[in-house]
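Hi R.,

As promised on Friday, here is the backbone we talked about, encoded as structure tokens. Could you run it through your design pipeline when you get a chance and send me back a sequence?
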């Protein structure tokens, strides 16, 4: 631990850049996803009042619900569009310019949401949320890649996890500012929505003082001097031959290979193992049961006889627990590796869901079980934070070369946004149909994911991109060789039978 802290002191400029990246990166996405829940009643009332003032009649509840659903879902539509654009933008202009452009988009979005109340236009909220979605689609991909590319090898896991740290921080900040004691009121809801503009402005002002990522400068731009200058600026004085040699090896391997677009990546067989790994990680993360826990949190707190005024603060405690556990994950991931945090985390989460399922079913017979359910929710989010929440982002950054990373993240981003849309639409119906038994689905997903990760995911800790790519190729070769041997044995058996 002392060595880790001394590294943080040595790489203080890198830490400053991580702060600037995170505050305008995944932090914004986490904030925007969560804050809409705290403004929901006020925005719906604003829509109704605006409609009444314009047309002299009150909106039907069905129409109001439809307009509100548009405001919520338009964010995901914008997210998918932004995600599709991010691959081209990051490959052509680099992550730094891409994020700076994105900050301008977010400032325009903030002007729409912030002044919608004064202009008496709920359409401006729709436009603002759409632009925020585009910004989220771009910055989630650009931030994660940028953070992974500016880190030295010994801190690569820690730096990769910071994207998840800032995502959790954004959720926590939304819960704090959304309290009725602060901005979660009828008079301040538009100010609460405008907070993301302030954060984007901070990044827009400070990010120009930091360099583009060293791998992008060397491998994409061919700027060796610029690469070394960026490494020195971020990592201070020191010997960085290992990192530079790894980049030169990657450059030699990918010599003459341009940045591949999404279709080219999908048609490239050598990338299939990495794509399969990424899809497994993302789907398991989407279906790990976090949505179910979020859905049931308020109900479980109410059945535990917690006062209505206390529940928002307990929910805030849940968000802070997730944040602290992901921060803890960032400090241990380079010591324990990624695989054990993933499969171990999923198994622990499955065990906690089994206990939670049991406590929910027995809560009517044993009243003390309700308090156990509250504790288990905290434990589930802690296990989620220490394990998959941080490790997934790290693995995704480490298994792709620079030529395929941008497009692979576009594919992964589309999976994430479709997953958010799908779970948002389907999950409430699953709860209505299955009730607490919906946790059984997630338990099965967690166990299957843990087994597949244990069997097929190579450890990426302390390895260069070239070494990780070679390990995937070796595994693929062994699989093909095994299939060929089985085929030859079958043919030989058939030949002997004929004789």
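Update: got your reply. Pasting your designed sequence below so it's all in one thread:
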């Amino acid at each position: 631990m002392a060595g880790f802290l001394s590294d943080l002191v040595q790489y203080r400029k890198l830490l400053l850049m991580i702060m600037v990246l995170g505050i305008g990166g995944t932090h914004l996405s986490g904030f925007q996803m969560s804050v809409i829940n705290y403004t929901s009643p006020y925005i719906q009332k604003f829509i109704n009042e605006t409609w009444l003032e314009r047309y002299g009649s009150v909106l039907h509840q069905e129409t109001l619900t439809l307009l509100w659903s548009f405001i919520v879902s338009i964010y995901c539509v914008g997210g998918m569009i932004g995600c599709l654009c991010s691959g081209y933008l990051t490959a052509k202009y680099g992550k730094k310019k891409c994020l700076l452009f994105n900050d301008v988009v977010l400032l325009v979005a903030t002007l729409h949401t912030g002044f919608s109340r004064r202009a008496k236009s709920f359409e401006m909220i729709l436009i603002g949320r759409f632009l925020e979605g585009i910004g989220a689609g771009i910055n989630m991909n650009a931030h994660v890649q940028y953070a992974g590319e500016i880190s030295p090898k010994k801190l690569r896991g820690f730096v990769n996890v910071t994207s998840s740290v800032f995502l959790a921080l954004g959720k926590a900040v939304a819960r704090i500012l959304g309290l009725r004691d602060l901005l979660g009121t009828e008079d301040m809801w538009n100010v609460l929505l405008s907070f993301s503009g302030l954060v984007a402005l901070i990044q827009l002002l400070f990010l120009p003082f930091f360099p583009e990522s060293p791998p992008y400068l060397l491998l994409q731009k061919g700027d060796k001097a610029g690469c070394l200058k960026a490494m020195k600026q971020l990592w201070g004085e020191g010997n960085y031959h290992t990192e530079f040699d790894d980049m030169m090896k990657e450059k030699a391997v990918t010599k003459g290979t341009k940045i591949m677009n999404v279709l080219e990546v999908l048609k490239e067989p050598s990338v299939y193992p990495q794509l399969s790994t990424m899809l497994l990680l993302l789907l398991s993360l989407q279906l790990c049961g976090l949505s179910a826990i979020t859905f049931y949190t308020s109900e479980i707190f109410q059945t535990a006889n917690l006062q209505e005024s206390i529940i928002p603060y307990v929910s805030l405690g849940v968000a802070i627990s997730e944040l602290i556990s992901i921060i803890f994950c960032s400090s241990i991931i380079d010591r324990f590796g990624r695989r054990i945090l993933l499969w171990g985390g999923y198994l622990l989460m499955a065990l906690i869901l089994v206990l939670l399922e049991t406590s929910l079913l027995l809560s009517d017979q044993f009243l003390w079980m309700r308090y156990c359910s509250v504790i288990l929710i905290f434990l589930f989010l802690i296990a989620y934070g220490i394990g998959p929440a941080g490790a997934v982002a790290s693995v995704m950054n480490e298994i792709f070369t620079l030529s395929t990373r941008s497009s692979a993240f576009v594919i992964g981003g589309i999976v994430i946004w479709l997953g958010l849309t799908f779970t948002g639409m389907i999950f409430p119906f699953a709860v209505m149909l299955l009730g607490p038994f919906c946790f059984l689905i997630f338990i099965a997903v967690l166990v299957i994911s843990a087994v597949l990760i244990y069997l097929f995911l190579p450890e990426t800790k302390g390895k260069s991109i070239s070494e990780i790519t070679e390990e995937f190729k070796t595994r693929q070769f062994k699989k093909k060789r095994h299939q060929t041997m089985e085929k030859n044995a079958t043919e030989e058996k058939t030949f002997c039978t004929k004789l």
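One thing I noticed while checking it: The chain has a mean pLDDT of 84.

Thanks again,
M.
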